[in-house]
Structure formats: C-alpha cells, structure tokens
Amino acid sequence: MNQPRDLLPELLLWADHKPITVEAWLAQVARSDEAMGFCAVLWPAFVTVGDMVFRAPFDHQRLAGWVRADHPREAIERALNLFSLKDYFHSGAEPKAIARDRRLALGRTMAAMLPAKLAQDFPQLRFSAVLVDDAQDVGVTFFQV
Question: Which helix (H) or strand (E) holds 132?
C-alpha cells in the first residue's frame, strides 16, 4: 500500500461492485467544508516569532516556557510545530484495520507538502519536515535547518 488510493477499499465496493476512481468517488461523497478544512491542515498558515517559524494558530504562552528553559531554536520549533494525527479519524465508519496506515499516508503526504509551502512563504530560509511515527503518535513537524 504505497499510495493513498490503496487505502480506499471503498473504491472497490461501489455500485454493482464495479471499481470507481478516486475523483468519481470524491464527487459523490466529499463535502466542501471538509475539503476546506483539509486545505488548511495540509497547506497551513504560519506565524513568525523573532527568528522562529510556527504553524498558525500559535500558542505564545507555550513558547515562553520553552524559551525560559533555554532550549535551542531547532528543538523549540520541532516540538511546537508537531501536528499530531492521533486524534483524527475516529468517528463514523473509519475502518480500524487501516486507520493507522491512513494516518501514516496522510503524514507522509503532509511531510512532502510542508517544504513546498514553507519555501513559498519563506524563500530565504531552509526547513526540514519530519514524519513522526512512534507507538504513541503519528504526525508531522518542521524546523529550520
């Protein structure tokens, strides 16, 4: 299962058990409000605080604790830019057997997209986007390099 479409068994179970394309399936079932939400998640807005870049909206109080503890910029950005996917996709008819695989696929896509958005918004800076995949969480973070 290398592609997101491989994680959509719904495509094989369409009318008369004939396969359907992702585009045709989305035209039938997708909601525009959800699409706008995913646009905001996958192509996020950013804020700068001093020489640091964070995903918006941003919690300035949380930053203050990290700064007081004298953490380096990379560690602060890495920690505060973590976008966790562990709380997503638990409602409705989400198939539990592939839920983690779907979160991983989404995380990989986000990690691939983030450098393009960051380069567009901050062409003078260089970033690394990292997939976080451990027993507790799947997510994506980024930081300046």
Answer: strand 127-133
Mean pLDDT across the stretch 36-49?
A: 94
d(CA 83, CA 132): 9
Element spanning 66, H or E: helix 60-68
Q: For tokens 């995380």, name the residue.
A: 107
Region of residue 41 (left: phi > 0; alpha: psi -120 to 50; beta: else): alpha
Residue identified by tokens 């179970």 is 13
Three state DSSP letters for 2-49: CCHHHHCHHHHHCHHHCCCCHHHHHHHHCCHHHHHHHHHHHCCCEEEE
Q: Report whether pLDDT(2) > 80.
A: no
Q: Do residues 4 and 109 touch, judged by C-beta distance below 8 A?
A: yes
